[in-house]
Amino acid sequence: xxxxxxxxxxxxxxxxxxxxxxxxxxxxxxxxxxxxxxxxxxxxxxxxxxxxxxxxxxxxxxxxxxxxxxxxxxxxxxxxxxxxxxxxxxxxxxxxxxxxxxxxx
Length: 105
Known about the structure:
9 strands
């Protein structure tokens, strides 16, 4: 009985993810895209075979996203509102709005 309870507890915490690997030869970008079935989040990990750079991004069901760019600087945003913020110390940027109303500083 104790073994069954432990197994059930472990399975309840298991995250099922469907992953796909993609390679774009002209750019040298290799992507691993995984969708978490439980949360609906999509995780993308990228690696460039030409310059060795790496990045990652997580997208949520509500349209918000966050990640790190190839310089490993954090960024976040929200597609519905058009919000975007990059924490790159050399090129910090914040944007709000969509279309012709979009403002970036």
